[in-house]
Amino acid sequence: MPHIGEIMAVSCALCWAIAVLLFRRVPIMDPRGLNLFKNTIAFALLLITLWLTGGHIDWQRSPEDWLRLAGSALLGLTLGDTLFFAGLQRIGASVAAVTDCVYSPTVVALSVVFLGESPHVGLLLGAPLVAAGLVLVSWQGQTTAAEKVDRLGVLLSVSGVFATAIGVIIAKPALDHSDLIEATTVRLFFAAASLLVWQMASGRLRSSFDMFRPQPMWRPMIPATLVGTYLSMLLWMGGIKYTQASHAALLNQMATVFLLLLSRFVGGEVVPPRRWIGAGIAVVGVLLVLRGAP
What we know:
Blueprint: H1 4-23, H2 31-52, H3 63-88, H4 93-99, H5 103-114, H6 121-138, H7 151-175, H8 180-201, H9 205-210, H10 218-242, H11 245-252, H12 254-265, H13 273-291
Helix pairs in contact: 1-10, 1-11, 1-12, 2-3, 2-8, 2-10, 3-7, 3-8, 4-12, 5-7, 5-11, 6-13, 10-11, 12-13
């Protein structure tokens, strides 16, 4: 029977896939400005949620844990999401799903090395299938002009996912003894504050503030922020908190499969048959991970 951590990790994957599809519909703009917008809105919503649930900021947390949450935010939310948005402007949602493949292998490798996690039997059986499916999804043979991929966009997106994966490992020890909503709120505060400073230093603060005025592009931005930052962030951190980081990472990787499905049937993108086969193999691997969970 899946535990709460597994359920939250898979739910996060679905929310993030929906959000990526929505963010892809936002007109070309400054990726940092878009990142500042979604982090600020999500931070405000989390403050309200923290208050409604009777929570409070843990001012007694150790300096190490403060540094871990801040460092995780700077890497995963400030740098990682900015790079991902920059890449997403240049590539389609289905290709973005492929670039997400670097997430779980990175987290699994780093969690074993730095967190001392030892994978269970289900993980050992399912991980190779997930990896094989994702390799098949990302494989590109002869492509038509319509299927060609912007390499810079792929590089930017992969770099963003890699930064996010490192952020997971940094945050994990602090999350183990922190309240879920409070820790998520703290991370988003550091992310929004650092982006504000970044935009101020680059002279783009005024253009960033323009995004907070009601306008047509709010139609995809607001729901994408609610699903992809506010809700997805809670589910993502909950998955990391309530299960092993390597385990949660593999289940988060279901976002690749969900995004392929949504990009084809909702976004109308062309998805080659090879990617469908790879997605099926990845699903089998994830089911094995869930079945073998202790």
